[in-house]
Structures are given as structure tokens and as C-alpha cells.
Amino acid sequence: MPCQYLNFIGGQWVPSRTQRTFPNINPANTGEVVGEFQASGPEDVAAAFAAAESAQSAWGALPAPRRGEYLFKAAEILESELQAAAADMTREEGKTLPEAAGEVKRAINILRYFGGEGSRLFSYQIPSERDNVFCFTMRKPLGVVALITPWNFPSAIPAWKLAPALVAGNTVVLKPASLAPLSALRLVQALERAGLPAGVVNYVTGGGGDIGDAMLEHASLRAISFTGSCEVGNRLYDKATRRRLRVQLEMGGKNPTIVLADANLDFAAATLVNAAFFSTGQKCTACSRAIVERAIYEPLVEKLIARTLALKIGNGLEAGIDIGPTVDASQLKTDLDYIAIAQREGATLLCGGKRLTGGAYDSGFFIEPTIFGGVNAGMRIAQEEVFGPVLAMMVAEDFNDAMRLANGIRFGLSASIISNDMSRVHQFVNRIEAGLITVNLPTAGVEYQLPFGGTKESSFGMREQGPLALDFYTESRTVYLKHTV
Ligand code: NAP
User: Fold this and answer.
1) Is residue 252 lining ligand 1, measured as CB closer than 6 Å?
2) Rounded CA gap, 204 and 182, in Å?
3) pTM of whole model > 0.90?
4) Spacing, Cα 233 to ligand 1 middle (Å)
5) Given the CA of residue 454, which atom of ligand 1 is nearest to it?
6) What is the average pLDDT across 71-83?
């Protein structure tokens, strides 16, 4: 019998009032149910918001360094079970065990980083133009905030929303993705075991379509932080702004890597393989367009194909595996559909392109890492997010042409360049339309202590992570204090 996991509301682990559950399936072995989770309904959401509302004033009044101590303690607890948490993540999401362990470590770092923010929560002290007036700003929590998270970073993303929200004095209702709710549950368990007061964090699982509206409509809600697809994010934006809720959206990408003619080809090929295919291409920051100067296009393609064919695809729990499965049947179908579309539109299939079958592959959602050549800017494979291991190769006539292609999309999440030409690199940094810019590094791979977020249609609202994350979760108050003696 698979383990049954409950909602966490008002400090208690409780079943949904719907009395229904849904299975969390291992995408590398669909015969394994990782756990049964609560298929919550609007009544569960109402209970979670009521708990968050009643806990908020006491939590917000607690000195911020003491709020931070709960995060330090939770980090310690999660660290003590890092390997088990990583294995859970691999089983529910499919990424390899080292990738999962790296992500849990990142969640631990995030808890510690924001634990430390409890002793800072910097604001301004600014001189007044009047005599004996002391002016300063201070940060106040917003109140009750909703966090809605995707499946692809099922521990790090909940952590990078929860930690700043909590240290700032907000209380939280967290809804994780239905495809990978266990990693978020482990975070909540760590916070519970750290002694977090009842109602400060509430965890409710269930289909976004079933409980999303109830979350957005709750009277006590002050802000919503969402990471996921543009389609869902844009819908949430419409509803939230009608109520003047504070909204933060982190969404899709179609991230380019420009490779200039001076690049070392082995280095460029290794960087592209890492950025495009690791985590099965299921990173919002994954590279899905390689824009390459004509002079090195053919030799780079050759090296890229050789490296791609050497990748080992399989169950991420096994040693030596480079790439796990896609997360579910629907994502696999999306990948295969885009591969078919690219072929119909005239792109050249250079390698991969098929679902993997036979033996253990038959019980999972495995796909070959895929490279298309001869892609032009008008093709859907050059414009739309696939969210799988599919790389589009595009030829650029020169640097300016590469910049034109790189910026010629509606997204603006991450972008990279591979070159040692400092003048071109500087121009790239200044002209590229992306929130995360890397040089001689993959498009993916962010550090917890720096701000993160995109531009154009990839993102809306304030930045996540690093010192800027607190801006979203706090409201600034300005004080003019006249002292008369
Ligand atoms: P998704 O389908 O938009 O789901 C994201 C979250 O929204 C899930 O918890 C989902 O719940 C929930 N949801 C779905 N419908 C909803 C509704 N009507 N109301 C409220 N919530 C609703 O995205 P995903 O497939 O999980 O994630 C993949 C996408 O996330 C990609 O586009 C990727 O680029 C993006 N992403 C962006 C970033 C970034 O920082 N920019 C990071 C990671 C991922 P259910 O799971 O129950 O459907």
C-alpha cells in the first residue's frame, strides 16, 4: 500500500474534506505509486486560510531574528535527511539523484540565507530637511500569502518562496504541483519539527483547477507568488489584479546560447549539452536555442551530436545516469508533438527524436535528447517553450544577427554567450533581453544568494531570491519622528 500523505492545516496533519486522494507516480517506473495525496477542495482551502489568518498577528509581532531561528532549525533538520529527501524527489520528479541532492542542498541554503535575513531586514534611514526630525522606513509583513509552485524544482522553488515570506512575518498557504508534492511536504515537515507555531505554514494539495480559484478568492489573501506556465500565470494575474493583490509570476522561457566564432568548440558543446539536456531539459532556464556563428556551425554540430549520443538515459536512482525521464505522459507527448512539428516545418533532425522503448524504458516516460539543425526564427521550435530535451540550432551570420535572433522572442528568462571577445561580451550583457545573463556558463544554474527572475513575458512583479526577495513579501512604511527635547 502506498503511503498516504495529508494536508497540514493549523498545525495538524488532516485529510481532505473531499475524502478523495490522487496518486503521485514515479515517471521512471509508472508501476510505483510514490504516495497518495489529498485531492483537496475549496473547504480545505478555506480552512487553511482561516488558520493562516488567525496565526498572522502573533507571527508578525515576533522579532524577526526569532522568526529566522525557525528557518535555521528547519535547515538543520532537512540537512539531516538530505539523501532520503533527494531519493523522494528522484522518485516523484525523475531527475537524477545527484541533481536532486543538489536541489535539496539548495533548499537548505535558502532556509539558512533567509534565516540570516531575520537579523537584517534592512530598510532606510534618510536625513530629514527639518530640525530634530528623524526619518526612516520599516518593513511590515503583508499578511496571508499564497504560494503556488511547479513540479520541476519541487523543493527549491517552495523553499525560495516560503523562506522570505516567513522571515518577513507573513503566514502562508502553499499549494505544490500535483506531479511532485512530496518534496514540498518534506520542507513543511522540517518547519513543523523546527517548532513553527500552528497556522504559520499551511500545505494543501490538489488540482490547481480545483482549488486555484478558492485560493485567489479568499478574503484574507494579500499576495500570490506563482511559478509555472504562462497560461496559468496569466490567468492568475487577471484574477489577482482585479482584487489589487500583490502578484509575482515566474513563467516560461525559450533561452538562447550564442556561440561566437572564437569559442572553444569542446567547451561550447559541453556547455550546451549541460544547459539543454540535464534535468531532461525541464528547467525554466534550460537552453533551447543554440545560435551559432556560421564559421563554426558545422564543426560544433558534430561535437554536440557526439556528446549527446554518449549520454546515459534511465532511472535517475541508478548510478551513472545522466538524464532521467520526462515528468509524465503529458510532457512526453508535448515533447514528441514539438519534434513532429519541427520536422513538418522543415527543420533537420540531427539526433534523437524518439521515445525510448524496450526493457525498463517501457515502464517510464523516457525520450532521446534531440537536436534540430537548420532552424529559422519563424519556426515554432524557435519560438515556443517545449520544456523537454529538445535543442534548436540556428545559424547567425555575425554577432548582430545573433543578437537579433536571441532577442526575437516573447520570452526573456535566461540567456548566455560563449566567447572570450570582451567587447562582444559587454555588448551582449547590455543588449540581451533576459533577466538572468551568463557568460561562458550554461543558461541554467543559479545560486541561491542572488536575485532571480526574467523579463518580457517570462515574468511579472518583483524578483525572487537574494536580497531583493524581501521586497515582494513586505510593505514599506515611512516614519517622520520629531523629537522635542
Ligand atoms: P503549471 O501547469 O502552470 O502549474 C504550476 C502550478 O500552478 C501547479 O501547482 C498547478 O497545479 C497550479 N495550477 C494549475 N492550474 C491552476 C489554476 N487554474 N489556478 C491556480 N493554480 C493552478 O506549470 P508546471 O507544468 O507545473 O511547470 C512548468 C512550467 O513552469 C514551465 O512553463 C516552466 O518554464 C515554468 N517554470 C518557470 C520557472 C521560473 O522561475 N520562471 C521555474 C520553474 C518552472 P497542478 O499541479 O495541480 O496542476
Assistant:
1) yes
2) 12
3) yes
4) 8
5) 41
6) 98
